[in-house]
Amino acid sequence: MNKKGLSLFALTMIAIGSTIGSGIFKTPTSIAQAVPDPMWMTVLWIAGGVVSMIGALVYAEMGGRFPKGGGIYTYLKEAFGPLPAFLYGWCLLTVVSSGTIAALIVVFADYSQKIVGFSDQLIPIVAAGSIVVLTLFNMFSLDSSKWFANVSTVLKIIGIYGLLILLLFLGTNNIFDNSISVSEIFSNEKAQGFGWAKAFVGVLWSYTGWHYASFVTNEAENPKRNVPLALILGTLVVTLSYVLVSIGYMNVLSIEEIQNSKTLAADAMEKIIPGGSFAVSILIALSVFGCAGLYVLATPRIVQQMSNEGLFFEAFGKSHPKFGVPVNAILLQSAWAIVLIFVWGKFEALYTYVTITEWFFLAMACSGIFIFRMKKMGQTDGIFKSPLYPVLPVLFIAVVAWFIVKNALSDDPAAYFGLMVIPIGAVVYLIIGRKKSE
């Protein structure tokens, strides 16, 4: 029996820490390009928070039902069988985690360029070399990598809230003066060209991580009260933080300046404190580097679990004899992340490639709640149950489906190439199954 040791405060910190990432330092640029209106950009950030909160509440119930761990992989396997679970692990390796590492490291290279001043042509090379360093660091120095991850998390929080305070208090723009009103949003000619679904990619990329907070439901004190309250409080804090930082950028920079910025946080800081961009660039570069290291370290464990369950090639289930890390899985993931840097190159393309596919599986796993409820699967006594069932899961799935379909039907290859990896994974699954039977 698990010790019920996680307080409301601890659960809330998990909800906040697992969600706030590096996206807020970059994604407002692409959001402004798709929806160039301050008020409606703000509405999108609020909408992303609402969607994340709904998803977190549903996942909190599933985490209570299946407390053994594994998250989405476990939910898919319990609800739909081994193939969907394998496809999630396959896409986690080939799209989600490797693509996230690539995207974060491109941000690191962009801000490093701001510090050092190398040419644009060197950005992918610097990014690829950084992944090699991170990989070696995580393979042979597990304690050091955990320490660096903790330090980078502190730097990230300092960067976000320090930036927020400075932007809000030192900026002088009249932000919402020229925004399109609510009554005109459907008739305004400018609004007709807004790319709502495209902008939502950047928003959901920034909010991704809320589902990790739902995995500790079984270890919470008074889970029926504290889990939903922590998720609500945590999501409110994250949403408020993102909304205020976005407003802070607009308080300092014009929409056009935001649209054309490559290192948004540094450019905003330079505008209010000449020379301040250097310190901010260092802070963000270190923060993003450490965040990428977390993915290098964590995700190969799922690949290893799949291998040990016979759902992936046996070689990737092995651990290093001295350091205990899944060395082959780490090497495979990092090598593919480097390939993705040279295939996509730009941060926006990389996070689009990742976000569409990741939210596809978030919605698919969410649909498992209907099966778990009907068949009374997993633990049912004393767990938190998602309120307003079945309205919340239906609403979550509907919004995510709209977001995926609109983007997948666009002319942006990054929006649908990640989804194309899924049928390739099905073929790999069949090959592995055939080898096992032989």
Report what the structure shows.
With about 450 residues, this protein is an all-alpha fold. The protein has a single domain, classed as Up-down Bundle (Amino acid/polyamine transporter I), CATH 1.20.1740. It has 18 helices and no strands. The protein starts with 7 loop residues before the first helix and ends with a helix.
CATH top level class name: Mainly Alpha
Radius of gyration: 21 Å
CATH topology title: Amino acid/polyamine transporter I
Mean pLDDT level: 86
Unreliable spans:
none
Overall SS class: mainly alpha
Q: How would you sum up the global shape?
A: globular
Q: In percent, how helical is the residue content?
A: over 70%
SSE order, as H and E?
HHHHHHHHHHHHHHHHHH
Strand content: under 5%
Helical segment count: 18
Number of domains in the coordinates? 1
Tally of strands: 0
Largest sheet: none
State the CATH superfamily name: Amino acid/polyamine transporter I
Oligomer: single chain
Which CATH architecture is right?
Up-down Bundle
Give the end-to-end Cα distance, rounded to a whole number of Å.
40 Å
